Amino acid sequence: MPIARVALPVAAAGPFDYWYPEGLALGDGSLVRVPLGPRRLTGVVVAIADDSAVAREKLHAVADVVTGPRLPVDVVDLVRFIASYYHESIGLACALAVPPLTRARRQPRGGDGADPPPDVAVARRALNWEQAAAVAAIRAAAGRFAAFLLRGVTGSGKTEVYLAAADTVLAGGGQVLILVPEINLTPQLVARVRAARPEATVAVLHSGLAAGERRAAWLAAADGRAAIVLGTRLAVFTPLPALGLIVVDEEHDASYKQQDGVRYHARDAAIWRAHRRSIPIVLGTATPSLETWLAASEGRYHRLDLGERADPRASLPRIRLVSQSGARAGEGIGPELRAALAARLGRGEQSLVFVNRRGFAPSLVCAACKWDAQCPHCTARLTTHRAPPALRCHHCGHAEPLPRACPACGNVDLVPLGFGTQRLERTLAEAFPTARIARVDRDSTRAKGAFAAVRADVEARSLDILVGTQMLAKGHDFPRLTLVGVLGADNALYSADFRATERLAALLIQVAGRAGRAGLAGEVIVQTDFPEHPAYGALLAQDYASFADALLVERRVAQLPPIVHAALLGVEAHRRGDVDAFLADAHAAATRLATGDVDVFTPVPALLARRAGFERSQLVVQSGHRPALQRFLAQWVTALAALPGRRVRWTLDVDPTSFG
Ligand code: ADP
Ligand code: ZN
Ligand code: ZN
Question: Looking at ligand 1, which residue's alpha carbon is closest to its atom 19?
Fold first, then answer.
């Protein structure tokens, strides 16, 4: 009697055995519905066997086979790799690859459900020599594994390189997978890809799509109809029978790492898949992650450089650092930025004011007794919001009305401290009453299509000033935008996260890269009280490479990733004592299991020591030798699963993007 081993979306190790009748054509990657206890679940067949360790009369039968394509063997292999590398159940890993199983509705235009494409100039231009050299190198790697770091300054025309490299693959009947970090970035890139390659079928995959739309795009990819598949993190699991090239745009972006459930990194999964399929992969960015930078400097990845902006009229923006404390009197906007904004308004050019805080002000304090508004569920301050008015916690979602008087001393003089997007929006509206201003942050773009509407307004020149968070920093190409103002970036310098300065420098370079991308000269004004900090130095010199080299030296000295490989055990419970007890046991197990090349650190409270009512602590383990760490983790996870600790939740994060 044939047995199907089925991976099911549950945390238990699995896979689970089921029998099925002889005639049923099941194989690896088949999608089936099976009973598990009282439930009926959809799972993936990961092996066929003739025998099971489960007694015959206890075995259940496969209930149903899902019609449509099965997961191809390279996707099943990828899922197996993810399960083993991140020490998750094969079932939870498989769930990442299973398409939404609703009935597919017919979709217009390749069925992607993306916003209608904005008008994009289609001119197929000649590549400049740096672009041409990059394309030639990628083409020469066709049919074998090679990883390329395409390092191009902002506006250097990386997209044209992706497209030209894709052409060769498409011409040979192959498929191209392009990963992007943000849903918000997909419509613009989709429009560019469609405009540039109108003959190619483009399928778009991201989590913002309705299930039917996603399934339609998935099917188009799986049966080879879609020549180009463009998507976010999850798209790395898409079946692509003729896959010939993978592109990871903005490879440094933190959103490629899933922060809950199976904590995989989509860039690393993409590299694994390219290797498995023996195809080239291109990692594009202006500010490489230190992981990628290290790999390139060791020769594991090939470096391709685009040193200049592609539009011959464009040059890199002029950058000025000015005092932040001087800006406080001006409600956040200092005299230099104010004058520069006025000049743009006079010339009919656009400006962007960037601050990485949403809400009105990051705190509310009493002028008399120094009381400040704290979240009752987290070790964090509450953010003052004005539209609508409330105190909100950005960690757990807690909200309460703005107090009229200090709860500690009764004083009515409560002061919102610091600047968020709402406050700057108000400052700007007061300073420039005739300017057309839009705010872009998670609050203002919650409604579907809100972000696309702002982008359309920028393109139609019906907006003068954008004020917003890092949503605005990424990838956008606005030709009339000539001024970028940056506020509050110094906050990152106080962070205890070892990656804070790396992130800050990357963010500054990205956001500065929005200015002056076409014929109009760009200017960037950064308000800071620490102008001598290396992150600002990297921006001033527009030299991320030297900065990244310096950071790698620091990481080597401090023995931090990516020089070493780390994993972080995060533990939380309602009671601190339960957390500490579990971590003490976990630590004891780790020291018992660790061999010489694995370091086990002391458990410490998380940077956010309490969140949403849960006490949180963590334990870091690391090793200079990845296989040694992996062997250790496999044993440790087994030991952790056997620990008493029913009142705690724990997660293991392999290659965590922060130690917070
Ligand atoms: P990046 O992704 O590197 O930031 P883009 O691909 O968005 O850069 O290109 C920046 C701008 O330069 C775009 O407006 C693009 O159309 C233009 N561009 C790209 N390549 C060329 C080229 N070879 N000649 C002229 N303009 C180009
Ligand atoms: Zn008070
Ligand atoms: Zn909270």
Answer: 157
